[in-house]
Structures are given as C-alpha cells and as structure tokens.
From TrEMBL:
It holds the Pfam family Ferric_reduct. InterPro entries: FAD-bd_FR_type, Fe3_Rdtase_TM_dom, FNR_nucleotide-bd, MRET, OxRdtase_FAD/NAD-bd, Riboflavin_synthase-like_b-brl. The keyword Signal does not apply. Its main location: membrane. Coiled coil: none annotated. This is Oxidoreductase. It comes from Paractinoplanes deccanensis. The keyword Electron transport does not apply.
Length: 433
C-alpha cells in the first residue's frame, strides 16, 4: 500500500512524464532554439503553478498526513522555482523572437507587449516578483504577518492572468484532444481544490458553527486567552495540537488573518486560543467585545497524538509555544509516560504554568520548568542536557513548539541522540499563504 509520500511522488512522476511528452510533440514547431527553450520553460512553469495551487489549497489529505510545516517548506521552494521560471521563460521567448525579427531584446519587449495576452503574462510575472521579494527572509522579517499575508492575496490575480495567458499563448498542450483535456483537467482540479479549501469549506463551516467570543482572559501583561462558543462544535473534529486561522470581525480587516493554536483540548462546546501580543491583531485581542463574531478556517496541522509511534512522549514548549503543548497534555489519547519541558527566561513569563502543573498531576506527568538566559553556561536543549532530563528520549515521541532558534536546537540535539525522524514532531507556524 502506497504511503502519502509514495502517492505524491507517483503523482509528480506521472504528470511530469505527460508534460515531457507534450513538449516533444507540439502542435506547431518552435521558430528557433531559443523559443523552443522558452516553450519548455513555460510548459513547466504552468505545471509548477498548478502544483503550487494544490499546496496552498490546504487539502485535508496533505495536511493530516504531511503537516502544515512541511507543506509550507515545499510551498516556499516551489514558489522560488516559479520565480526563476518566470524570469527565464519570457527571457528565452523574447531572445528568440528578437533573433527572428532581427531587433534588440528591449525592442522586442515593446513589440510583444502590444499583444494583450502577452501583456497579461508580463503583469503576472511582475506580481510573482512582488510575492517572491516579500518572501525573502530579510523582507519577511520586516513585514508584519498581516501585511505579508495581504501581499500573498495577489496569488489569485496571478492565477487569473496565467490562465488567460495560457488560453491564447499555449501551444505545447494543444497537440491533440487528450493533451488539452489533461492540461485543463489539471488546472481545473488545482483551481477547484483552491476554491473549495480556501473559500467554500470555510464559508459553509462558519455559517454552520457561528463562532463568537464568549470571554477574554488576561494571562499576563502581554498574553491573552480568548474563549469561543458556537453551534455543534464537535463536528469540527478539532484535535489538541491543531490550529485555526482566525478573523475577528470588526476587530481587523477581512484580509487580515492569524494562525493561533488551540490552547485547550476542544470539548465540543467551546474552543480556546491563547496569544501573545506581537502583531496588530494579537496585541488588540484583549479589547475584543464579548459576542464578537469570529470567522475561523481549520482545524489545520498534524501536530497531534495521531502522529505518535511510541507509547511514551516528551512535550517541549518554549514561550508562547506552550499553547499546543498544553492542549496535548490534556489529550486523553496521549497515553503512557509523559515528560514536559517548558522553556522560559523567567518564571514570570511561564503563561499557563498553573494549568500545566494541574494537568501534570492529573496525568502523573513530570514537568520541568527551564529558566535563565541561553548562554555558554545554560544550554537546556543540548544533547547532553536533554539526555539528562529524559534518559530514554530515543524511545519516545517528541513534540516541540517554540521560537525557531529553540526548535532548531532541539531538533539538532534529537538527531544527535538518535531519535528517529518519525518520532520528531515540530510545529513552527511557517504558514503558507
């Protein structure tokens, strides 16, 4: 039986074989070698664009088996592949036509831009460049999450422009009825998945469950918990460790959305999120009026007990990353011996600590609060210190959520300690748009 990864590779290889055959058997031959190279790059650009739509469609099959973090890594690399194909495809086409028309490269740009389908393709290429620049690490750090997400909404405009461009300019997939049926079937599947996952399902779910704010509780000067109620919440089938994308109607604009984990195990009657005031949305949550309508997408994420393969577990939290860890500790399906490691600079920063202590007593789990500034004399997540805290860590599933630097340090130590990859589970909120 094929695993999820086996099914993905099979899908990719079969589709790539069809794409290569389409390139080798075009309806009309290319004018010269340069335009042939441009056609090759354009055909693969269309294919990779369709794959990107599937990656951001939040398909349950992929989300539950692969996890949003890994999917987002794929999304990032696919995005930069698209960027370079967008640069190279028109470059070779323009060079080819410039040679054919015996004019300069720049003159050929002005010449082809007079054709509306080509102009739309150029606009789409420019928008791809904007999205790519906003995703470079330096730019990403300078932008708020809300601004970064808003920039990525131009993906929808790119899709429309790309489809129009292909209708008028594509030739490699017009060899025969089969190639046309395949190509537009692939794009229909990708666009349909995107609209279903990002528009239809969220609209239906929110109309059915009608979430609203029931209480807002201050956990610390910069951390707040929001309790939500609604109708038939058990039908959401949310699990401890998962997250939703939240919009608080009237509190922020419709295009502003934030990923927050559930900080308590869902009970079918209410949901709770706990957030630290970092961006404009999270910082203003404590001013939410009771009764505010909430639009939520999800649940998402594979950071759940369903991924574990061993009986015992280690739950590692850093800072506000404690939220999904606290929910997992409450999860009754997470059986066996449990060790919790909670990393903060000072005890005063340990939000939800009282709840963790109560749950640890109830579950007979061991809870270690690790404090102090990280330095040469304090490396709580070095391989040696982890082994000292949990001597049998290689025989446990390890769930970790916290700042990127901490998470990377933990994963590095786990590899040194020989913890198999299937036992390492991380949630880092590198969320695809």
């Amino acid at each position: 039986m094929l695993t999820a990864y086996g099914m993905i590779w099979t899908f990719l290889i079969l589709n790539l074989l069809i794409v290569e055959l389409m390139f080798l058997n075009p309806k009309t031959p290319a004018h010269n070698t340069l335009t042939s190279a441009g056609r090759f790059l354009g055909l693969h650009l269309g294919f990779v664009l369709a794959l990107q739509l599937l990656l951001i469609a939040r398909l349950p099959f992929l989300d539950r088996r692969i996890g949003m973090d890994r999917l987002t890594t794929w999304h990032r690399w696919t995005g930069f592949t698209i960027f370079w194909l967008v640069v190279l495809h028109p470059t070779f086409v323009l060079l080819g036509y410039a040679e054919l028309d015996d004019i300069s490269f720049l003159a050929e740009i002005a010449n082809l831009a007079k054709q509306m389908p080509v102009l739309l393709g150029m606009i789409a290429a420019g928008l791809v460049g904007v999205v790519a620049i906003s995703s470079v690490r330096l730019a990403r750090r300078a932008l708020s999450y809300e601004a970064w997400h808003a920039v990525h909404l131009v993906v929808y405009a790119i899709v429309v422009l790309a489809v129009i461009h292909q209708v008028y300019e594509g030739s490699a997939y017009k060899s025969n009825e089969f190639t046309q049926l395949y190509w537009w079937g692939l794009w229909a599947f990708a666009i349909g998945a995107l609209l279903t996952g990002r528009v239809v399902v969220p609209l239906v779910r929110n109309a059915r469950h009608r979430l609203k704010v029931a209480a807002v509780i201050s956990e610390s000067p910069d951390v707040v918990s929001v309790h939500l109620t609604g109708r038939n919440l058990g039908e959401l089938r949310a699990r401890p460790g998962q997250f939703f994308l939240w919009r608080f109607l009237g509190h922020n604009a419709w295009w502003q959305v934030n990923p927050f984990s559930l900080s308590a195990a869902p009970d079918g009657r209410s949901l709770r999120l706990t957030a630290k005031g970092i961006g404009s949305t999270s910082a203003g949550l404590r001013q939410l009026p009771i009764g505010t309508r909430v639009f939520a997408e999800g649940p998402y994420g594979a950071f759940t007990s369903a991924r574990r393969v061993r009986e015992d577990a280690v739950l590692i939290a850093g800072g506000i990353g404690v939220t999904p860890i606290r929910a997992l500790l409450e999860d009754e399906t997470l059986t066996g011996d449990i060790v919790v490691l909670y990393r903060v600079r000072t005890p005063g920063e340990a939000v939800l600590l009282g709840e963790l202590q109560n749950l640890a007593r109830l579950r007979q789990a061991r809870l270690h609060l690790l404090t102090g500034r990280t330095g040469e004399g304090n490396q709580p997540f070095s391989a040696g210190n982890l082994l000292g805290l949990v001597p049998d860590i290689a025989q446990r599933d390890v769930f970790v959520c916290g700042p990127a630097a901490m998470t990377n340090a933990v994963l590095r130590s786990l590899r040194q300690l020989g913890v198999p990859a299937r036992q390492r589970h991380a949630e880092t909120f590198r969320l695809a748009s």
